[in-house]
Amino acid sequence: MIVAVLYYDDLMILDHKMRPYLTIGSIFIVFLLIITIFVPVSNAGLLDEKETVRVAFIWQRWDILDIPAKIGMFIYKRILKQAESEYNVNFEVYEFWDRKHGGDVQSGKLELLDIDVVVGPGGFGGWNSPKAYRTELRKFVRSGGGFYGICGDSTFGSLGVVNFPAGFRVPLKKATGSKTLTPMLGLANVYTDASAFNEILKYPFWIKKSDIIEIAGQLPISRAPIKIEPSLVNIQEPYSGDRIRVMLGNAPLVDGPIIFRLFMPKVYTIAEFKGTDEPYDKTLKGEKAMVATWYGKGKVVLSVVHPELTIGNTRAHDLFVRNLLWAAKSLPLKDRIISSLPLLVTLYNSKNIDHPLFWYLLITKDF
Q1: CA 78 to CA 58: how far, in whole Å?
Q2: What DSSP string describes 229-287?
Q3: pLDDT tens figures, 260-304
Q4: Are residues 99 and 227 in the same domain?
Q5: Are residues 190 and 121 in the same domain?
Q6: What is the pTM of this model?
Q7: Which domain holds residue 299?
């Protein structure tokens, strides 16, 4: 009986001494339970959660060069999958197809699927596109989406084409089905300099569609050096100053009108040509191969060359990934927009850009 009483007294003393610690421990446990309810936890844990980047590759049914799209999609998905661990992201890749009267872009899927960046992989489809298609893409980028235009889609993202060779309308009709171009997106203050096609289109009146396909067929085996230029938008920082051999694509980009710099954000040169290869001549050297800028709230990268299709060159593939991530706002870099008149930038980035008169006066005739 005495032993039992002593044992009870010992417990009472122990309980009295431990009570503050038990109270603190209880509060800590409750705090952990609350955290698990309100904080999202990935399978890899709190510190290892990966960002999801939604990428839409846009293709056109009216473009003959988009026929091998399935091959391209296999390559793009493979490169992006390999990059996920390096950049700690998950890529969700979508394949968008449009016709002249409807399709994925025109039906609003960019917003519906919460796409982060659109990739135009090339071809002539954007050179002869329906207005509804262009309107949706401009709206997407202006609202904060990214646009990464490669090869022919670097022209689509630009103000248009200058210095067309004499007789260009014949090969243009063979390639696009029309002797005229529809307005481009006008996302960047640059043009495509078509004078690079002078040697290729030496005899335009005798050119056939099969000739155009044959010329395009030379591009996959072409390799030309580009130099990564340091800039305030140093997207390719790990390769700054390096020369990388990549597959050729479109004609080079040149600066747009000086007056447009008053209301369009500055265009930064990411890479320049330092050499050439067939089917182009030496006029490529020193011209712009990659540029970056902004349009509204969105980011824009235009790449004349095909780093993503440069087989066996992992550095070239990384150029593609970094361009895409920057356009998707998923590459950790500090951005600077340089503009002379912020008020005009606001006007240009507003919904007024869709007004026909405004577009006619400042960019191109899109009505």
Answers
A1: 17
A2: PP-SS-TTGGGTT-EEEEB--SPPEEE--GGGGGTSPPPEEEEEE----TTS-GGGTTS
A3: 999 999 999 999 999 999 899 899 999 999 999 999 999 999 999
A4: yes
A5: yes
A6: 0.79
A7: 52-354
